[in-house]
Amino acid sequence: MATVLEGTARALLRRVAIEQAEARMPSLVAMVLRDGRPVWFGARGTVEGAAPTTATQYRIGSITKSMVAVLVMRLRDEGLLDLNDPLGKHVSATPVGDVTIAQLLSHTGGLTAEPPGPWWERTPGVEIDALTGALDAQTARHRPGRRFHYSNLGFALLGELVARHRRTGWAEAVTEEILQPLGMCDTTTRPREPHARGYAVHPWADVLLPEPEHDAVAMAPAGQLWSSSTDLARWAAFISCGDEKVLRPATLAEMREPATVDDGDAWSGGFGLGLQLSRHRGRRLTGHGGSMPGFLAVVWADPADGSGVLCMANATSGLRASVATDLLDIMDTLEPPIPREWAPAPVDTGLLELTGPWYWGPAAYVLRLLPGHDVSLTPISGPGRSSRFAAQADGTWLGLDGYYAGETMRLVRRADGSVSHLDVNTFVFTRQPYDPSAPVPGGVEESGWR
C-alpha cells in the first residue's frame, strides 16, 4: 500500500477516531484510495479483542446490489436481454411483470421497498417461489417510472433473473464473473474468520446486543455479501477505473449516468443503474451504501481521478454519512492531487481541418480532437449543448453524452471537396455565423448582417 504524509495520516485517523467514539461504533475501519490504489487504512475499536485489520470481514449489505447490477449489464451486453424488457419476459409468475429491468436497476419501478412477511433482514430467508408467491397487488406502490422508490424486493427479482440466465445461483455468478477476475478472494456470502460480529448499541447506555445473521435466500441479492477492506478497495477501484475483464468501459459509464435524482434540479444525490451517485465539492462520486442489522458500510469512488473511500462498521445504526466524504476532503486539503503531465495524444491528424470554431446560428462552438478518431463539440463560452462524439465506421460520429447523446453528426463537403458544414441531427453548424453559402434551414437574409 502506498503511504500518505504523517500529518495526513494523523488527520485521517483522528476523523475515524472521532466517528468511532461519538457514534459509538464497536469497531470502524476506513480506507482511502488515490489513482485507484489504497494509500491509507485506519481502524478503531476491537473485533474479538483485537484491532481489525485490512483482512477483517464486515457485512456490506446493499453494496451487494451493485455487483448484481453488473451481472445484469453483462447479460445485456451479451444480447440476452434488453434493459427495456419487462421483468415478466425473464421471470414469470409475478404481479409486477410489466416493470422493466432498467426501472428495477434504478429503483424507479414503483415496487414496495420490502418483501411481504416479517423483517427479512433479521429472519431466515425463503426460496424464490415462496417469495414471488406472496406478492400481490400491493407489491406495486407507485406507477412504474414515476419516482425513485428504493426497493430491496426489486433486486431480489434481479438476482433471480441472473440465476435463470446463468443456470446457477446469483452468488456463484458474482464469484465467477466479478470477484475472481478482480481478485476479491475475501468476499463471501457468509462470514469467515476473521470477521466482525454485528451489534445493536443501546441508545441510552453503552451496552451491546448481538444481532442475528441468516442466509436471506431469495432476498440475498439485496444484501448478503461480506467483504474486507482490501477487497472493497478493489471494488472501489473497479467502479472508478473499470476493468474490461468484468465490464466494457462504455457499459460501466452507462451505469454511472444519473437515471433518477432525489433532490430536484440542483441534485446532490441520485441513482444510476445499480449505483448510487453523489455530488460533493466538485466531485461526482459513484458507489453504494450498505445497511444490515449489526453492520453499516459505504464505498465511494470518483471516476475523474480514481480517488475513493470506504468505511465499514459493526453497528446497526449511527454511522454518519459525512465520515466518508470528510476523509476525501482531508486528502484533498492536505495532499491535493497533482495533475497528470500533459503529453501529445494519438489523434487522427487528418481531422485537424475540422478543429476550431463552428457556429450554430450565432452561437459559437469549438470542435476539438479526442484520442483516436473521436471529437468533442462544446460552447466557446456561456451555456450551450456539449457532447463528445465517437467515430463510426461509415464516417459519421455518434453522440456519447449531453444533448446529442445517441444522435449522429455528419461532415458535409461541397462538390469540390471543401468543408461545407456539420449536420448534427438536422442542426447545421457552419464556419461563420449563418454562413450564406451553407444550406442553413430557413435560408439566410440576402442583405446579411447590419
TrEMBL record:
What lineage is this protein's organism placed in? Bacteria, Bacillati, Actinomycetota, Actinomycetes, Streptosporangiales
The record's listing under InterPro entries reads: AmpC-like, Beta-lactam-related, Beta-lactam/transpept-like, DUF7586
Protein name (record) = Serine hydrolase domain-containing protein
Q: Name one GO molecular function term.
A: hydrolase activity
User: What highest taxon heads this organism's lineage?
Assistant: Bacteria
Residue span, DUF7586 domain:
348-431
Describe the location of the Beta-lactamase-related domain by residue ranges: 20-319
- Translocase found in the keyword field: no
Q: What are the transmembrane regions?
A: none
> Keywords of this protein's UniProt record, alphabetized?
Hydrolase
Q: Which Pfam families match?
A: Beta-lactamase, DUF7586
Query: What SUPFAM superfamilies does the annotation carry?
Result: beta-lactamase/transpeptidase-like (SSF56601)
